[in-house]
Specification:
- By secondary structure, the protein is an alpha/beta fold.
- Helix content is 37%, strand content 17%.
- The longest helix has 28 residues.
- The N terminus is likely disordered.
């Protein structure tokens, strides 16, 4: 008897078997599906700094980061050679630090230019290989982006979508005629993103590096339910969500995103956001970046929610406002995500 096995099913089964066998594509040795772990107790999160400019990561900077109490870095350094990646890893390890994630950032897999799409997928494969060479367990990937179209205000999004096909019918309550072009673009971007991420899964599995999908500032998958449905549609342990605490506050409160995403989250980024006026049923609203601890994010409730979904792993601090020091960032993380 012969059985047809799809690539998605094979890779998912293989990765699950690897986890069961003792090797896990996990953070700090804790399985990505950690919400199912029996007897789970809160552990302090591993602290990292996000660095957008890899040229600033020097021996002196690593020494400062370690002295401030951080465990590692997440760096936007996907486009380097394997030799450079290995040297980067050695430099961090010399200071007792770990490079836990490579930021690949924004792709345009929804481009009409097929050559551009192919180049973007190839860059994603390179990012996965770079991550493996630096010792990172994941890459941060934004698969597609849509701009310049009429769409609802962030706090007014209500996505009506088919849970099986992910095809969107409406993006807000009431008349959706003004958003027709955006809805079409949303569906095309989702379809192209699925194809692109599926093309990356074999490299992810081979390198032992997870794909952490983020939907930051790309105007796609703008509600917790829709983003979660998109991430889980791959049904693959090598594809999870890299979620940014603060980036999505204009759409919904952080806790709403965390509760819905749950065990699909493998990594967290952190920044603060000050909502000027809470709007919509989810509590989003217009605002701007704020120094960490000085915005409207309810960090105590965020911590409580993280305990409820049993998150354990890395949180990367991303400086966006104010002139806070490494020590101040580290102290904030200890106060809210420590023991």
């Amino acid at each position: 008897m012969t059985t047809n096995v799809t690539r998605r099913h094979f890779l998912g089964t293989a990765a699950t078997a690897i986890v069961a066998g003792g090797f896990s594509p996990a953070i700090n040795g804790i399985a990505a599906e950690n919400s199912t772990t029996n007897g789970w107790t809160w552990q302090p999160l591993s602290k990292a700094m996000f660095v957008a400019n890899p040229a600033t990561v020097t021996d002196a900077y690593c020494e400062q980061v370690k002295k401030a109490g951080f465990d590692g870095l997440m760096v936007w350094n996907w486009d380097i050679t394997i030799e450079e990646a290995r040297g980067f890893r050695l430099m961090l390890e010399k200071h007792g630090l770990r490079h836990h994630a490579v930021c690949r950032g924004w792709l345009t897999t929804n481009s009409p230019d097929k050559e551009k799409v192919a180049e973007d997928i190839e860059s994603g494969e390179k990012a996965l290989r770079t991550a493996a060479a630096t010792g990172a367990s994941s890459i941060l990937l934004v698969p597609a982006q849509v701009h310049g179209l009429v769409m609802p205000d962030p706090w007014d999004f209500e996505m009506d979508f088919d849970p099986k096909t992910l095809n969107v019918k409406a993006v807000a309550a009431g008349d959706n005629a003004p958003y027709a072009d955006y809805i079409k673009a949303q569906n095309l971007a989702t379809e192209s993103s699925i194809r692109a991420v599926e093309a990356l899964i074999p490299t992810a599995a081979r390198e032992g590096v997870m794909i952490g999908i983020e939907n930051v500032w790309n105007n796609l998958w703008c509600t917790p339910e829709y983003f979660t449905a998109f991430v889980r549609s791959f049904d693959n342990p090598w594809v999870k969500a890299h979620f940014d605490l603060g980036n999505h506050t204009k759409y919904s409160r952080c806790e709403e995103w965390l509760k819905v995403l749950g065990h699909s989250i493998i990594k967290l980024d952190l920044k603060d956001f000050a909502v000027r006026e809470f709007k919509g049923k989810r509590g989003g609203g217009p605002g701007n970046w704020a120094p960490i601890g000085h915005g409207t994010v309810d960090w105590k409730n965020v911590r409580k929610t993280l305990e409820e979904i049993r998150y354990s792993g890395w949180v990367s601090m991303e400086p966006t406002a104010g002139n806070q020091t490494l020590e101040e960032y580290s102290q904030f993380l200890d106060e809210h995500f420590g023991a």
